[in-house]
């Protein structure tokens, strides 16, 4: 049985319970982060902690925990649960005011709820999916306008993943006004020659922590990076495509809406970026 963290306490998972009045449950009024673990260490913890603070601030939520304490909780859960490869999930909600009300509760009276738990994923780095590449379909992006805030409103991304599954694909890329925004739970990229193309940061997409690192490593490796919109048709004609996220690192995409990219197998750039990302982020892991 896992040890989890709830509001200052380490508990067996079956003893950690949250109120039915919690605004995370009633209104998806909460934010989250997923930090990966490799070699028993946290990848890019700092980036996730900084983005968490931003998400909370944008929603006028109080941060119940300092960065130092948060790191300590992450480490303790990794240790207690013996995680070598996997992830730590963190969620903070606006808490349980005791009634359902659209108005935010007074933060002086209602404390946020904070939950962390681990997921064990042996073989995460050496994933067979990364060697095979994944298939994506395209779907309309009908999410809200503040996708830069990492909220727990994940119903549409879940539906997108189900649409992909039903059509024999692995994931969906979302399209707004003709242009790809991002994957259901990852950032989206295409490659043309030596150039990596990905949508620029705005409120339309999540500012991926893996994205930031991968683009930095790409530039350091003299690859060209272009941050601009691209259409799904441009993607289908690209040499390569890939996604990034904390749970998949860099994952090649080999098919879009049934159209194979290049030879229909991972190309040169995405696997190389995955290698660099894993190597460099492991060096900096805490
Ligand atoms: N998802 N875009 C969306 C919509 C996401 O949900 C995520 C992360 C990303 C990539 O961000 P990062 O590189 O910081 O993980 C982009 C996490 C992993 C999840 O929901 O499980």
Automatic annotation (TrEMBL):
GO BP: any one term: methylation
Single Gene Ontology MF annotation: methyltransferase activity
Keyword Cell wall biogenesis/degradation in record: no
Lineage top rank: taxon: Bacteria
EC number: 2.6.1.42
Swiss-Prot/TrEMBL cofactor(s): pyridoxal 5'-phosphate
Keywords associated with the record: Amino-acid biosynthesis, Aminotransferase, Branched-chain amino acid biosynthesis, Methyltransferase, Pyridoxal phosphate, Transferase
Coiled coil: none
Pfam families xrefs: Aminotran_4 (PF01063)
Reactions catalysed, as given in the entry: L-leucine + 2-oxoglutarate = 4-methyl-2-oxopentanoate + L-glutamate; L-isoleucine + 2-oxoglutarate = (S)-3-methyl-2-oxopentanoate + L-glutamate; L-valine + 2-oxoglutarate = 3-methyl-2-oxobutanoate + L-glutamate
Family: Belongs to the class-IV pyridoxal-phosphate-dependent aminotransferase family.
Official protein name in the record: Probable branched-chain-amino-acid aminotransferase
Lineage, highest ranks first: Bacteria, Pseudomonadati, Pseudomonadota, Alphaproteobacteria, Rhodobacterales
